[in-house]
């Protein structure tokens, strides 16, 4: 192949000079090397050579843009420090103190809202003393790495504590690092239904950024504190010994500020708590799987299940977030109690009687499906792992017990279900009407897909009011009292319900969720109104469509969130059985329940998981335990 020569330069172009010292350090165009050491020419590489162009004169070249070199930044910093020594020292001291404050704040951060008070942050954490001892002893490079890793771990624990604050506020318990991740997606869906998809997306992005920021800030803060300790190890050691003596003195004498011990072991206690919770979760998974296999009525033949209810139309109804606070809290109770008393009187006029008591729910503030499955199965289903275990098995539910007899058809009315619901098979439901099968064409009321009045009317039209060869056992979930309790539907004439379009004006004129969701007083008021609406809709439906053979079991699934029910509210919910046939209520006379829809304060309180067996036994079922 012929040797390729470099085209001659135009006469007015100077050969390219070496870069001047003041030029950027980036890549520059330079003449290609000649001779044996030169790189292969394009043609030698199998590529046809392109046209060659002369370089522009040096005066016309534009420097390659690049970020300032770190050394240049350090030189500028040093020049500023030399020019302003006092300001530099003050700024450095302030930054170090801020870093120390951040580390102490992270070490002392509570995981419950009620623990946020000044005394909680006026403590001396032993973890800070231990960490300082380690950092003082390490050489510079090891100290930096250890401080960065320890700070990032502290940031992760801080994020976990903040998550605990929200979980305790909404669900009355801490975040389970094994089981609760899928609830974060449920929270995003709730925000999307309540405040819109854009707000939900921004909240999700904001949460991720918050966690990343916490990890970065605590790591940087710990590194800075470590560097400060390492600059003068002798002085840092003396200060550490003094603080250790102070901590031991406060611990021995139990010195307290505002009822809180000054000598703190908060972070160690939190790590121990989460470690024990993790161990408990893993143990519980194995133990509950065995418990779920044992069933007192698992092998009972259908002919021996609920013989005393043959021929009755059974309705098991949950009212969302209907808790004890609605009946006994001084803010909500007056309106709710008036509604319950008025409804009791109206039902009595229609020939119905009611008996009521209390059940302690397996969940609080949310997780309605845990309450539903606990009540229907007779098992204590208080976490997502237990829920998956029980719903994937064959433990007998109340609705399945009625279906198993062969004497009842079963149906579910689930206006809150907006996706696949495989649990219907476990519940023993022959047919399910979800949010898309009830014919609703009106507006959503925040999270609730439709008003309870419409859902009940659709239930009557599609299932309860139709002629059946067998009585019907129904599982109905009412959602209008679901948070955020805004806007709340209003009762309309039953004959005007149609496809639900009548509610458009009511929804448009209602209170906006954003006006209620952050206001505790408004939340409590609107929650009480929503319970009044749900109770009114249900009892009016029963007056309108109930027969001599109708038996209604109605209860709440859980208490509302702590912002409404209070930080130390019980987990109790009201439960009532309503019927015209006196024999139905005579069967539960020994239970000691209260007459009417409003249970007395001293009425019996059972765990929700105890109801199934008591109910089956009261109505003549014969136990035949299944083998575990």
UniProtKB/TrEMBL annotation:
Coiled coil: none
Taxonomic lineage: Bacteria, Bacillati, Actinomycetota, Actinomycetes, Kitasatosporales
Chain intervals with Pro residues compositional bias: 1-10
Record field: compositional bias (Basic residues): 61-80
InterPro entries: Alkaline_phosphatase_core_sf
Start and end residues of each stretch annotated as Disordered: 1-80
Name recorded for this polypeptide: CDP-alcohol phosphatidyltransferase
Keyword line: Membrane, Transmembrane, Transmembrane helix
Transmembrane parts of this sequence: 87-108, 120-138, 145-163, 198-220, 240-263
Keyword Transmembrane on entry: yes
Source organism, top-level taxon: Bacteria
